[in-house]
Design goal:
about 325 residues; 3-stranded antiparallel β-sheet; 8 strands; alpha+beta
Length: about 325
């Protein structure tokens, strides 16, 4: 599920600057994956986004060691100590602690990294609790440290759920671009950063140059749907799916956090597309808003202003 790209060696070198106890790590975004508007030769000039997953019992110790090893990464919050930082990370959604705009002078790049506990990552992957890290992992990313089987199983569950939700939102007939655009759009549904702070063409710019990577990522899950989904062998081209009420019920029931919510009950599917979008959008808005507010003190005022300025340029330059 993690493709090997030109940035893997670079990411592995970066990871060495952190304390051990990582059980999984990955890089995502324009710094490691092609997006329209970012030339491949310029990838290293973009911010490289990393996620570092820590075993639950090691979280506070990891922050203690990282503050000692990389004190410049942290804002003034470091004076509160690793215990407060660990609690701040885990109490407020989306259970991620971010350090941003960190210059790696030796590599001539800038990184941003989020720290998460293994249990929080697994919960988001399997239940879409926040649709924050799970949203990033619904798209092609660069694995740096391979996951164990427990995380790998949760990653597979996340991709299967993303495919199922996308199929629910799509009509009877669609093409491969429609499918992967719908999947990529899921984690941006309701995300207030898309109003202010992101390129409005973000989803298209992710999907278009990475269609082959999306096909490879979702290939086993698409083939597993062959009894209800008709598609070309290459996965490129026209698709058609069973949209009977019986099939829709079956798909909804396979996603408990959606099926058990509000109006999506046993007796009527009604306007299920609108309900699915509403339920998903509400979760995404909550986690994206809270995490963004949470990132202000972890970055510090100066870095927050710089980061917001760069994001605003993406909004108004398109």
């Amino acid at each position: 599920m993690g493709s090997v790209g030109a940035g893997l060696d670079l990411c592995r070198r970066i990871i060495k600057r952190f304390p051990h106890h990582l059980c999984f790590s990955f890089a995502y975004g324009s710094g490691v994956k092609s997006q329209i508007g970012y030339e491949k030769k310029q990838l290293n000039k973009n911010v490289v986004d990393l996620v570092l997953c820590i075993e639950d019992e090691q979280l506070q110790n990891w922050h203690t060691e990282n503050i000692q090893k990389n004190p410049e990464d942290y804002s003034g919050m470091k004076i509160l100590g690793s215990s407060v930082i660990a609690k701040y990370q885990t109490i407020i959604p989306a259970q991620v602690y971010c350090n941003t705009l960190i210059p790696i002078k030796k590599e001539n790049i800038t990184i941003k990294y989020g720290v998460t506990r293994k249990s929080d990552l697994i919960k988001d992957l399997t239940h879409w609790q926040e649709v924050y890290l799970s949203g990033r992992l619904q798209k092609p990313v660069q694995f740096i440290q391979e996951p164990d089987e427990i995380i790998r199983k949760a990653l597979r569950r996340n991709l299967q759920t993303a495919l199922t939700v996308a199929l629910l939102l799509l009509p009877e007939k669609f093409n491969d671009y429609n499918l992967f655009h719908t999947i990529a759009q899921l984690s941006y549904s309701g995300d207030f950063r898309m109003i202010f702070g992101e390129n409005p063409n973000k989803v298209k710019n992710i999907v278009q140059p990475q269609l082959d990577s999306f096909r490879e990522l979702y290939k086993p899950f698409i083939f597993a749907e062959k009894d209800h989904l008709h598609f070309p062998g290459s996965l490129s081209g026209e698709y058609s799916q069973d949209k009977s009420d019986e099939r829709v019920f079956s798909q909804l029931k396979s996603i408990p956090f959606i099926y058990s919510s509000d109006k999506l009950g046993k007796h009527s599917i009604g306007n299920y597309r609108d309900e699915v979008k509403r339920i998903l959008g509400r979760r995404v808005f909550r986690s994206s808003a809270l995490q963004s507010l949470k990132n202000i003190p972890t970055a510090g005022i100066i870095k927050s202003l710089k980061y917001s300025y760069k994001k605003a340029l993406k909004t108004f330059s398109h």
